[in-house]
Design brief:
Strand order of the largest sheet: 1-2
Shape: globular
Largest sheet: 2 strands, parallel
Distance between the termini: 31 Å
Number of domains: 2
Strand content: under 5%
Order of helices and strands: HEHEHHHHHHHHHH
Helix content: 55-70%
Length: about 190
C-alpha cells in the first residue's frame, strides 16, 4: 500500500498516526524514512484494558491518563514508573506493552500542543471509515467495481459536506508544522 502511494506521487509524509497494526510502523519508516510515526493513544488504552479485570478497569484507565496527558516526556516517564510500581506485578502485559511501544506512543511530546491534538489519535480517520462502512455494509453486492467506486465517491462527498467545523486553531497548527518541517512542508503550501 505504501509503495503504491509512493508510485502514485506521494513524495513525503510528515507524521503518521497509526493503530499499531503489526509491522505497519516499520513499513512506513522504510518507504518514507523521514516520517514520524505516532501510535494512537486511544487504541493503546483500549488494548491495555482488555487485559485488566472489570473491577480494576476504571482505576487503571485513570492511572494511564498521566502517561499521556502531561506537558512533557520526562513527566510521562515518571508517571510510567509510578504506574509500573502500582500495577506492574498485577498486569505485566499492560506494562510491557506500554514499555515496548513507548517511543512511538510518546512521539507527540516532540510537538507543540496545537500539533499534539491532531496526531495523538486516529479517531478522525476511524470516524470517516465508520461512515463508509455504514453505507457499504447495507449493500449485499455491487454490480461492478465501478458501482462501488461511485458509491464511495458520493459517500465521501456527503461526508465532506458535513465537515463544516474546521479543526480548532488549524492556522496555528499549520504554522507550527511549517516551523518544524521547514522546506518539507513549504513546498506544498500556497503562501
Amino acid at each position: 500500500v505504501l509503495s503504491d502511494l509512493q508510485n502514485r506521487g506521494v513524495k513525503d509524509v510528515l507524521i503518521c498516526s497509526i493503530d499499531n497494526l503489526k509491522g505497519f510502523a516499520d513499513a512506513i519508516e522504510t518507504v518514507f524514512p523521514l516520517t514520524d510515526v505516532q501510535l494512537c493513544l486511544v487504541h493503546q488504552v483500549r488494548n491495555s484494558l482488555r487485559y485488566v479485570t472489570s473491577k480494576d478497569q476504571r482505576q487503571v484507565a485513570a492511572d494511564l491518563k498521566p502517561l499521556y496527558q502531561v506537558a512533557s516526556l520526562s513527566a510521562a516517564e515518571q508517571n510510567l514508573a509510578a504506574f509500573a510500581s502500582k500495577w506492574g506485578d498485577k498486569y505485566p502485559l499492560v506494562l510491557e506493552s506500554w514499555q515496548r511501544n513507548w517511543i512511538r506512543l510518546t512521539r507527540f511530546f516532540e510537538y507543540p500542543p496545537a500539533i499534539r491534538k491532531v496526531v495523538y489519535t486516529t479517531n478522525t480517520v476511524e470516524a470517516f471509515h465508520r461512515q463508509i462502512r455504514t453505507v457499504t455494509k447495507s449493500k449485499g453486492a455491487f454490480s461492478s467495481e465501478t458501482a462501488l467506486v461511485k458509491l464511495l465517491y458520493l459517500t465521501t462527498q456527503r461526508i465532506i459536506e458535513k465537515w463544516k467545523i474546521p479543526l480548532a486553531n488549524w492556522s496555528v497548527t499549520v504554522q507550527q508544522l511549517a516551523i518544524l518541517y521547514g522546506d518539507r512542508i513549504k513546498q506544498y503550501m500556497k503562501v
